[in-house]
């Protein structure tokens, strides 16, 4: 049913609603300019909606319209693949093979975690409260049959974790510290003989703490005597005070090592598919988190839905949502386009003057704003400059990401990883402040900034390397086709009006694909075409000033709240609530009516990606990932001479956190590695200071984010904004630029930390 055949008033109203939803996602600020023969009513619909719903790449300004051939909607051209060069039969077969291979591997992953979720049900943990008098022993009989299985234990009490291994308690330690020992015993059927069937474990009591800590133990390698019929836990208290704890016991299957190996192989496969751009990063993160949940159910205890979502950092999700909402409203005021045109004019049309300003300004801006705010605000400006100057967006956005990652290690609120470090309970007694972050990390940030700028300057010494490799019209048509394809995919087909509008969009896509194929035979644009770019400054102006003022006021209020919270601790509001309150203030001041439209423009895929990674890190922690890393570091440091332990500790933390950041996002590493660092610092046998390791973790999380496209939340947010507007940045486009820069950054940061804390003893 063609859209032009609708003549009733009610139908036109419905059409207007549908078209308004489409225009939110149109490329280049162009209204939906589909022309029809003998149809003036539909043109009026589009023109009336143009003034209000014309959206630009994060800026809202108009774009100089290039001449295009318009296709009548009555024509139905045959669907053709858009390409400039014919694809050989080998390439076509290879693409088909990769598609089928990807689908097969994804099906294997789905079957793996679905099987384990169906096989192992959720178990309600029954808590037992135990109390131990001073210097007494208590026997707790287990109402479980442990023949052929293992035992999962959870102990919650006032424990002090000082080692990743069971420390041998000697007489001197017994006199100085209070501890609780426990052992699993098996008794014969007649209860006359009792034998230890596990090693004796020790938990030190933190008598000065008031917060409960959770200790999980999984006893798998247990040799059960054939005569044992009943099992019990023997607890011995070596404390002068009463000890109370909560006990949870659950039988688990033992001998499931092969499942861990199989799961790791699937995780590596998913990562390779994502790195090859055969799998979307958000879908890959969801698959990985689901797969690890299935592995936890197989080798441990299946986590409940509440436990799964407990691992999410809702503060960070709320922060991203609030900032995204403000930035999408700010886009309609045209501020980003205005700044892009002004920057282009100040740089006299050259790229390197712009990059020369970008790197030092990132250091100054992160002192005020956090990395998510900066990337969501600056990415549309970078995309507009790429369009004006005919640049390839991959190297430009890579420079933007690298500069922000280098500067975001300076303050507690400049990056999400620093914020998690600043808010962590184990570091409260260290009295971390805004100034301590700035003093310790500023020299490293300046040195790595200079190194990165030099590297990029040598890499792109010829500014033509940053330009587009294809003719301007070809590159622009590719982007237009991608964005129109996104518009079509987001439209429903539940009513006749929606189907007709979707057919109109699909017709537009076929028209663009036909033109893209013809452009392979067309000459380059005339020389006068470039002169039009110089006039763009006249078209980029600020509009909707009240809306602009409301957004800027909301950003200012959010900044003040962050300073009051982290600088003076005078308000009890988390970072997530501060961002949401700022977004609500912006909506209230401008009385924004089209809330559905602005919510549709928010990058929900990035928020889902962040959530899935936090769940993944929580499940890895339950699998004993942090325990394994801590035990490995503890053994390595204990076998090194005392004067070299701090050197090895700093280099090990930098290497491990950087390697993991290439697989997980940098913010999710904090919950995995910060507990490892605090336990190492408490271990008297290792005897290593805490703060040098904390600064090593903060620097490596920020600098390691430059390694690949999924190593940092800033990277994912930037590519999400670019993808939403039709600009494609592949994994390898960024990797070949950022990875070598990251290696140089880590070398400089390691040298700085060794000089400051090993040689200079700054701590």
From TrEMBL:
Membrane topology label: Multi-pass membrane protein
Keyword Mitochondrion: no
Cellular component, GO annotation: membrane
A Pfam family: CitMHS
Protein name in UniProt: Citrate transporter-like domain-containing protein
GO biological process, one term: transmembrane transport
Domain Citrate transporter-like: 271-699
Organism whose genome encodes this protein: Musca domestica (House fly)
Keywords: Membrane, Transmembrane, Transmembrane helix, Transport
Keyword Phosphoprotein in record: no
TM segment ranges: 257-276, 282-301, 313-331, 351-379, 391-412, 545-564, 570-590, 602-620, 648-681, 693-714, 734-755
Compartment(s) where it occurs, according to its Swiss-Prot or TrEMBL record: Membrane
């Amino acid at each position: 049913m063609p859209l032009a055949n609708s003549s009733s008033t009610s139908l036109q109203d419905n059409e207007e609603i549908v078209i308004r939803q489409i225009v939110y996602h149109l490329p280049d600020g162009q209204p939906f300019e589909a022309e029809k023969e003998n149809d003036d009513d539909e043109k009026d619909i589009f023109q009336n909606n143009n003034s209000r719903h014309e959206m630009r790449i994060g800026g809202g300004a108009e774009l100089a319209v290039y001449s295009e051939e318009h296709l009548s909607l009555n024509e139905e051209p045959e669907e053709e693949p858009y390409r400039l060069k014919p694809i050989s039969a080998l390439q076509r077969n290879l693409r088909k093979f990769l598609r089928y291979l990807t689908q097969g591997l994804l099906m294997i992953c789905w079957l793996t975690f679905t099987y384990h979720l169906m096989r192992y049900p959720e178990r309600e943990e029954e808590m037992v409260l135990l109390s131990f008098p001073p210097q007494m022993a208590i026997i707790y009989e287990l109402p479980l049959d442990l023949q052929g299985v293992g035992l999962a234990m959870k102990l919650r009490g006032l424990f002090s974790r000082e080692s990743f291994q069971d420390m041998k308690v000697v007489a001197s330690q017994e006199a100085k510290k209070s501890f609780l020992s426990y052992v699993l015993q098996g008794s014969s059927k007649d209860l006359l003989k009792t034998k230890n069937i596990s090693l004796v474990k020790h938990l030190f009591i933190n008598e000065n703490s008031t917060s409960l800590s959770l200790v999980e133990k999984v006893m798998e390698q247990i040799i059960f005597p054939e005569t044992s019929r009943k099992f019990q836990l023997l607890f011995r208290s070596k404390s002068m005070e009463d000890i109370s704890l909560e006990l949870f016991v659950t039988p688990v299957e033992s001998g499931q090592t092969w499942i861990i190996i199989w799961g790791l192989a699937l995780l590596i496969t998913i990562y390779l598919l994502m790195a090859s751009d055969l799998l979307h990063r958000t879908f890959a993160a969801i698959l990985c988190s689901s797969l690890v949940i299935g592995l936890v159910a197989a080798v441990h205890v299946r986590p409940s839905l509440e436990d799964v979502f407990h691992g999410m950092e809702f503060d960070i999700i709320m922060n991203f949502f609030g900032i995204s909402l403000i930035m999408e409203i700010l886009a309609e005021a045209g501020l980003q386009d205005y700044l892009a045109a002004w920057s282009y004019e100040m740089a006299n049309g050259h790229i390197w003057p712009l990059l020369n300003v970008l790197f030092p300004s990132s250091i100054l801006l992160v002192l005020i704003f956090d990395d998510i705010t900066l990337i969501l605000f600056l990415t549309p400006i970078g995309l507009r400059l790429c369009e004006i100057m005919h640049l390839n967006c991959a190297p430009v956005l890579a420079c933007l990401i690298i500069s922000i990652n280098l500067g975001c290690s300076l303050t507690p609120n400049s990056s999400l990883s620093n914020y998690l470090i600043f808010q962590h309970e184990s570091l409260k007694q260290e009295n971390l402040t805004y100034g301590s972050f700035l003093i310790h990390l500023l020299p490293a940030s300046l040195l790595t900034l200079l190194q990165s700028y030099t590297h990029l300057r040598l890499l792109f010494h010829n500014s033509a390397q940053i330009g587009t490799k294809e003719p301007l019209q070809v590159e622009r048509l590719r982007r237009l086709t991608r964005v129109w394809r996104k518009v079509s995919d987001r439209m429903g087909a539940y009513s006749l009006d929606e189907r007709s509008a979707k057919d109109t969009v699909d017709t537009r896509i076929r028209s663009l694909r036909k033109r893209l194929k013809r452009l392979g035979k067309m000459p380059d644009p005339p020389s006068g075409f470039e002169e039009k770019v110089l006039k763009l400054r006249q078209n980029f102006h600020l509009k909707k000033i009240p809306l602009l003022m409301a957004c800027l006021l909301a950003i200012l209020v959010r900044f003040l709240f962050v300073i009051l919270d982290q600088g003076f601790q005078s308000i009890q509001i988390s970072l997530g609530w501060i961002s949401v309150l700022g977004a609500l203030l912006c909506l209230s001041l401008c009385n924004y009516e089209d809330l559905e439209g602005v919510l549709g423009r928010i990058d929900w895929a990035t928020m889902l990606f962040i959530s899935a990674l936090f769940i993944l890190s929580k499940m890895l922690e339950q699998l004993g990932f942090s325990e394994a890393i801590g035990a490995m570091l503890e053994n390595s440091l204990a076998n090194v001479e005392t004067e070299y332990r701090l050197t090895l500790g700093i280099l090990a933390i930098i290497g491990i956190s950087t390697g993991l950041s290439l697989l997980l996002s940098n913010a999710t590493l904090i919950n995995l590695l910060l507990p490892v660092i605090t336990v190492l610092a408490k271990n008297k046998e290792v005897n290593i200071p805490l703060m040098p390791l904390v600064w090593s973790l903060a620097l490596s999380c920020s600098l390691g984010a430059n390694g690949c496209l999924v190593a940092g939340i800033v990277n994912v947010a930037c590519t999400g904004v670019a993808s939403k507007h039709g600009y494609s940045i592949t994994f390898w486009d960024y990797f070949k630029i950022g990875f070598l820069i990251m290696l140089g950054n880590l070398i400089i940061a390691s040298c700085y930390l060794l000089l400051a804390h090993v040689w200079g003893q700054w701590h």
